[in-house]
Amino acid sequence: MGTEVEYTPFELMAVAGARELKNGEIVAVGLGLPVVATFLAKRTHAPDITIMFELGVIDPEPIHTGVGLADPRVWYRSKVLSTFVDMLGGVLHGGRVDVGFLGGLETDAYGNLNTTLLGDPKGKFRHFVGSGGANDIASSSKRTIIIIRHEERKLKEAVSFITSPGYIRGGQERAQAGLPGGPSRVITDKAIFGFDPESKRMTLLSIHPGCTLEDVLGTMGFKPIVPEHVPFTEPPTAEQVRIIREEIDPEGIYSG
Amino acid sequence: MDKVVTLSEAVASIPSGSHVALSGFAITRATMAFAAEVLRQGIRNLTVSQCVGAMDADLLVGGGAVSRILYGGGSLDRFGRLACVNRAIEEGSIVAEEYSSLSMVFRYVAGALGLPFITIRSLRGSDVLKHLEEKAPSAVAYVDDPFTGEKWLALRPLNPDVAVVQVQVADPEGNAWIYGPRWDNEEQVKASKRTIVITEQLVPTEVIRRDPERTVIHGFRVSHVVHLPFSAHPTAVYRVYDYDADHIRLYAEAAKTPEGMRAYLDKYVYGVKDHWEYLELLGGVRHLTKLAADPILGY
After folding, report:
1. Which of B126, B131, B251, B297 to mutate to test the interface with A (most CBs of A within 10 A)?
2. Which segments of chain A are extended strands (E)?
3. In chain A, N or C terminus with fewer CB closer than 10 Å?
């Protein structure tokens, strides 16, 4: 055994996200952890990744952390500054985006995402950010990766509002809606999930070091498919942690 | 043709009940001075549209000028929610047609190109579509692809009465340059019956003629040009000034309650005669100079 590397749950999630990305892929990202994961992949095993932000930004190299996509800090040293039609239209709807990285208020057993409202859509509810480009990214990316905190209220059997479709109610429902792709991974701070090829139900793939199966299942609002043998998630390397802390998020804004 | 007018004159050209497309995106290039003047002139019953909701729409909704919003969702980024828009949706006091960013821009594209409809892959299988089918049944429908027979979702074109766009540079005819990403602004302009350009810098047409590749708003589409510095404050204008984080925080806090919003409006909108008084209230040149963009960073 080598020296134990110390890391936070956020850093483990970012590293797990980065591992999902292959060199040369086009990645549509929102802010926060997906940005850290994508920059990490770009600085390690996948230097030729293309990063796309929906509002018209490609491959920025920010040196200050922004408050959101609309913050010019996030556009610094971009290769392209253009439009929604160019990015969400010509790149995403045109079928060129390999991976969409999405988060949300809640997701469910079939990887549907809600960013619109909590409560009863027909009665009393609290309204939030809505779709932005999330529905578009969930609909047209070749695959999507969902990053979400591991809490019972965030991992539900069925979300209260499908803002961005996963496999809808499972089986062939997504394909029948005319949608390609679908969620490939759900990364939480306790585990990584995939989806069963037939039923499309969320399936436990690995448990983060330090967590137990009981802990993972006891803090979810539904029961995922659990295979007989579930490995531990590979922990971050010292170099990956160093890059996140020193190069990508030195101010600790994303991870703080 | 010289179309330069005061903000007050440009706003007076908009009748109550108009559909206005706004250029803001969260906390950047939002039509803040415009929105404040709309409230001061008492214009009401507006339909407001933009791909991603911004602070301009929130101020207009907070001031009671909006009866209907078409947008793809939105926020003040990490400063908070669009509290006034969200509260109005929760209370049912405005009609909200919610889209995704791309489905909104596709409606502008269809309007801009004069198409009868435009097909899209987005929205299918989602509750966003279910809500639109209930709230805006005339905006969405299914069509068969005449070549393959495949079923597609179709969106109706959108043609706002007027687009109001914050830009960095314009000439007196309204030919305009936008620095930085332009999100839906070009399509908003092309889809709208006319455009009001609000510019940080007014330049002679000769300057435009030297770099015409930069022109993203065609002068002939523009009815009024307003030359007004810091007219997007407290939101950012790339390469001109940064967002005013303290003021956005102050707004976000105030907007959390109707009483707080009322007090904000009384002080910063109704408590001043015009945009110039607003800038003085903020602290004038001494304050605004702090927001000036670094020429390399652009913020």
Report:
1. B126
2. 26-28, 50-53, 57-58, 80-81, 99-102, 106-108, 113-114, 117-119, 125-127, 143-147, 155-156, 183-187, 191-195, 202-207
3. N
Q: Please give the domain boundaries of chain B with CATH numbers for all domains.
A: 4-98+159-291 (3.40.1080.10), 116-155 (no CATH)
Give CA separation, A24 vs A38, A99, A185, B137, in Å. 12, 11, 19, 42
When pLDDT is averaged across residues A71-91 and rounded to a whole number, the result is: 97
Q: Do B106 and A126 touch (CB under 8 A)?
A: no
Predicted local confidence at residue B291, as pLDDT: 98
Using DSSP's 3-state secondary structure scheme, residue A178 falls into coil
Of B25, B124, B131, the CB nearest to A179: B124
pLDDT band at A1 (very low <50, low <70, confident <90, very high): very low
What domains can be seen in chain A, in order of their start residue? 9-248 (3.40.1080.10)
Average pLDDT, chain B: 98
The pLDDT value given to residue A3: 63
Q: Which chain A residues contact residue B51 at CB under 8 A? A: 84
Q: Answer whether B120's CB lies under 8 Å from B153's CB.
A: yes
Evaluate whether B197 touches B33 at the Cβ level (below 8 Å).
no
Of A56, A115, A140, which is closest to B122 when you measure between CB atoms?
A: A140
Give me the amino acid identity at B142: Y
